[in-house]
Structures are given as C-alpha cells and as structure tokens.
Amino acid sequence: MNRTLLSLFACLTFPAVAVSDAPLPGPIPADVIRVVDGDTIKVRAQIWVDQSVEVSVRLAGIDAPEIYRPRCDAEKAPARAAKAAVAAQIGDRIYLHDIRSGKYAGRVVAETLLPGGESLSARLLAQGHALPVGADKPWCTPKPERQDTRQPEPELQPEPEPEPVTPPRQRRWTLASLLPFLRD
C-alpha cells in the first residue's frame, strides 16, 4: 500500500520527460560498419565532439527481400543480391538525413545519401533490388499452376462384391439335448 502511494506521489510530482517525434534533419556523417541486408546497414555516427553512436539504419522508403528470415526459399537469392548491391555501392562513409525512430528498438530510419549526394534508396529502386514501402512483394508469390497435358488414366472398374458368406449355424445346447450324452 505504501509503495503504491509513493509511486502515485512520484508520478504526480515529477514532470514526465518529453520525447520528441520530430526527425533529426541531418546531415549526419556516418562510417559504415557493415551491411546487414538490402535495406539495413550498421553505422557509427558522430553526434557530438568525441561522441559517436553505433546504430542500425533502415533505408527510408524501400523494402528489400529479407536475408535472415525469408518468407520462402525464392526470397533468398534476391536478398543476397540486394545485400551485395548495397555493399558494392556504399563506401566507408555515408550521410544520414531525416533521421527518425524506427519501429524496432535500437534502429532508426533515415534517408541515406552517398558521398556524391545520390540517394542510396533511389539507386536500389532503379536497379530493381528493392521496392517502395507498401508495394506488393513478388518474391514469394505462388507461381501459376502448370497445365497438365498428360492423358487421364482409364477408370478402373470396381470389382464385384463377393457373395456374402453365411456363418455355419451354431447349435444351441439345452439340458434335453445333453441328456443322451450324460446317460453313459
């Protein structure tokens, strides 16, 4: 009871810390640590003098095939190709713009620009390694069914049912029917 009252008093007395949903406009220079998949990279961003943070960055505006949890086997090859395309196109440094919190803890979503100023997301879209967010993902759509050109097998005629077999009649033994055997 005392704990509950103390918690209620603390909540009413101390103001809540406001967390801003406003995006950080950037540019924030970041060193690339590694490419996670076709739409996520791990970077070390310099946020202040002698202060840097390592964070996973989701490339804004695109979806690429999943490499770690693919929905089907057909998604694996395009996922590896998208990851390789990202690795081949980014150097050691990128610039983050319009940075906002991602839906998963520890990850942000940002517009990622290459040193020449080109959007990495736009380049991946143009190359076909990614799709716009919300687009139907064709990687795991079922393939149309093949037309069967084989000749149907001839129908088998059912075998005639065998004649029912009647069990032999069982003899009922009564005391009168057993008397001749008992006299001996």
Describe the structure.
- The protein has 184 residues and is an alpha+beta fold.
- It is 23% helix and 26% strand.
- It is elongated, with a radius of gyration of 37 Å.
- The model is unreliable at 4-18 (pLDDT under 50).
Question: How do the helices and strands line up, and which of them pair or pack?
Answer:
Blueprint: H1 2-13, E1 28-37, E2 40-48, E3 51-59, E4 62-63, H2 76-89, E5 93-101, E6 107-113, H3 120-127, E7 131-132, H4 175-182
Parallel strand pairs: 3-6
Antiparallel strand pairs: 1-2, 1-5, 2-3, 4-7, 5-6
Q: In what order do the strands lie side by side in the largest sheet?
A: 1-2-3-6-5
- N- and C-termini, Cα separation: 98 Å
Unreliable stretches (pLDDT < 50, length at least 5) are 4-18
Shape: elongated
Report the average pLDDT across residues. Answer: 79
Question: Rg from C-alpha positions?
Answer: 37 Å
Q: What structural class results from the helix and strand content?
A: alpha+beta
DSSP helix fraction: 10-25%
Number of strands: 7
Strand count, sense and barrel status of the largest sheet are: 5 strands, mixed, barrel
**SSE string:** HEEEEHEEHEH
Q: Number of helix segments?
A: 4
Q: What is the percentage of strand-forming residues?
A: 25-35%
